[in-house]
Each structure stands twice: as C-alpha cells, then as structure tokens.
C-alpha cells in the first residue's frame, strides 16, 4: 500500500460530517432557519472561506454561516443528500448528472467560479533549491527522484513530500495532472491538515510541501487584522503588495514548455505563467432571501471577490494585483 495512505488515522469524512451536523441540530432549531446557512467546503479552501464568513457576518449580523471543512466528495455528497447543506465550495463544477438530480428534486442550482487557486511548492529556508520544473516535480512524486542531490548539488539527502491528506483535492490534482492517475512514490506522506503541512516544512529541511497559496499568504494572519479592518480593506478600491510567509521558502515552478520559472503570484496565475492552478467553484441551491442565498451573492460580488484577492488567490472577477517580482 502507498505510504501516503498508511499514515492516515481518521474516520471517513462523510461519517464525521454526519456526526457534526447532528451535534448542531439543537442550535439550528433555536435559530431562525432562513438566517442560518450551513456550508460544506473543501478543506483546502478553509482560509479563504473563513475570511468570507467573518466579513459577511460582520456586515450582515442577522445572518449566520456555519462551515464544515471536509473532502470534496463529502461536500458534494452532502449537497446531493438534500438535507441541511445547501451551499458547497469545491475545486470543480458539478457534473451534468449531479445538476440534473438536484433539478429533478425541484432545486434551483446556481453555480459560479469564484477564484483560481495556485498550488504552491514550499521548502524549508535551509534548502538551497530555488525552483523546480513540473517534470522534476512529477519525478519526485512518483518516487523516481528521491534525493535532493539528484535535482542540484545538495547535502540534505532524502526528499520528504508532504500533502494534507488522502482525500484532498490537492492530492487528486497532483495525481491526475502530473502522474496521469498513477501512484505516488514511497517518499510521499500525508499530514492531517494544511496547517500541519506548513509546520512539517518549517521544521524539516528535507521536506517539500504542496499547499494552496492562501495558506502561505502573509495577509492571512488573523492576528494582524481584525474583522473590522478586513471589512474596511475589502470595500476599498486600492490594492497592496502581497508577499508570502517567510517561515517557508516558496519555489518558482516552470511548466513543460517554459524556460523561465515563476512563483505563484496573482499576476502569473492570471496570465497562465504559473503552471499549477485549479478553479474554485461555489454552488448553492439556497432559496432567495435566506442566509445561504445572500452569502452566495456576497462571495460572488465585489466585496467577496476583493476578500479573495487579499488571500493571494486569484479572484474570478476582480483585476489581479500586479506586484514587483524578483
């Protein structure tokens, strides 16, 4: 069995999700139903959605949003169950069959791409490597390349690749786009969360982590900004320079036909220069006037898109930041 899967010690996401929903039933009964939205979100996008919720609830205090951060499959299943979850955020649009099923159950399906997320490659600052090609990355993921010295002169030794967890959309993206559906090598390990991927790389000079760019943006430090400050900045029309958390090093990446490598800045995601990216979609069947419907309108509108811009992810409808790059 692939070592990535040997490291997992967790209940299936759907089971955990069902338990969580049951636990919140008393709260839901006490709240005004239309004023509460339950949203299932791919846990890779937790940082993004949480800021959206914070500013939305601050701006519209009569509405509440209760998020559950689960796998992509669990999020879709929860929507198709026709239960309490009426809004999801995942890394793909619903299929025609999934939409037809919801429509056959008299659900009005609204769906929109809300962002383009870059997958960043992070290493420990003690690692001297500065860039990788997608070919080199695929060889590392497959186990064909296992030592840092095979990439460039380096005494770090074995490469430890760390993902968030088996069921994540990040794992699926890398397997499908770089390995053509093949297996990961024995040097690939799973953590339990994106935060643990970051910490593993920050503490291990041999590690390379694959993580959504919002998890390494310095703008995402909640200790630096209050919800009021975030709301004020989201409503402003200006932009500021974005940088990455200096506790890790973000590698440049070059695609198959590229000589120059790029970091996952918004301008390079926007023009396609940065090769590792995926779209984020928000889908809702919430009826008009409810918290779910209003939250969908908020996230897809100007302020919601500006919040996404502030996370380092490329918003779907707001002009990307043009920054000075090295």
Q: Could you characterize the architecture of this molecule?
A:
- The chain has 326 residues and is an alpha/beta fold.
- It is 35% helix and 19% strand.
- The chain has 13 helices and 12 strands.
- The strands form 2 sheets. Strands 1, 2, 3, 4, 6, 7, 8, 9, 11 and 12 form a 10-stranded mixed beta sheet that branches. It has a two-stranded parallel sheet with strand order 5-10.
- Helix 10 packs across helix 13 and helix 12 packs across helix 13.
- The chain starts with a helix and ends in an 11-residue tail after the last strand.
What's this entry about, in short?
The protein is globular, with a radius of gyration of 20 Å. The protein has 326 residues and is an alpha/beta fold.
Secondary-structure map:
Layout: H1 3-6, H2 13-23, H3 25-30, E1 36-42, H4 46-59, E2 64-70, H5 72-80, E3 87-90, H6 96-104, E4 110-123, E5 131-133, H7 134-142, E6 160-163, H8 169-178, E7 188-190, H9 194-203, E8 207-212, H10 227-235, E9 249-250, E10 252-254, H11 266-270, E11 277-284, H12 291-300, H13 302-310, E12 314-315
Parallel strand pairs: 1-2, 1-3, 5-10, 6-7, 6-8
Antiparallel strand pairs: 3-11, 4-8, 4-9, 4-11, 4-12
Helix pairs in contact: 4-10, 10-13, 12-13
């Amino acid at each position: 069995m692939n070592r990535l899967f040997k490291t997992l010690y967790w209940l299936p996401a759907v089971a955990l999700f069902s338990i969580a929903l049951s636990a919140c039933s008393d709260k839901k009964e006490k709240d005004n139903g239309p004023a509460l939205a339950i949203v299932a979100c791919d846990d890779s996008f937790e940082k993004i959605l949480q800021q959206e919720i914070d500013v939305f609830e601050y701006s519209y205090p009569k509405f509440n949003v209760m998020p559950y951060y689960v796998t992509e499959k669990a999020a879709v299943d929860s929507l198709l169950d026709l239960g309490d979850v009426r809004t999801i955020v995942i890394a793909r649009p619903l299929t025609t069959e999934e939409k037809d099923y919801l429509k056959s159950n008299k659900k009005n399906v609204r769906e929109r791409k809300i962002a383009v997320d870059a997958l960043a490659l992070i290493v420990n600052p003690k690692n001297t490597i500065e860039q990788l090609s997608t070919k080199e990355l695929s060889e590392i993921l497959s186990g064909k390349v296992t030592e840092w010295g095979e990439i460039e002169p380096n005494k770090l030794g074995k490469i430890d690749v760390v993902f968030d967890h088996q069921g994540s959309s990040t794992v699926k993206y890398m397997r499908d786009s770089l390995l053509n559906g093949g297996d990961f090598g024995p040097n690939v390990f799973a953590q339990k969360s994106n935060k643990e991927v970051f910490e593993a790389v920050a503490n291990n000079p041999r590690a390379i982590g694959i993580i959504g760019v919002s998890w390494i943006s310095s703008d995402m430090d909640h200790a630096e900004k209050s919800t009021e400050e975030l709301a004020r900045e989201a409503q402003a029309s200006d932009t500021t320079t974005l940088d990455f958390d200096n506790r890790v090093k973000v590698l440049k990446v070059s695609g198959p036909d590229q000589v120059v490598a790029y970091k996952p800045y918004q301008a390079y995601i926007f023009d396609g220069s940065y090769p590792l990216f995926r779209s984020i979609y928000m889908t809702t069947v919430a009826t008009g006037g409810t918290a779910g419907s209003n939250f969908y309108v908020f996230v897809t509108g100007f302020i919601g898109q500006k919040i996404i811009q502030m996370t380092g992810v490329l918003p779907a409808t707001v002009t990307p930041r043009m920054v000075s790059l090295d």
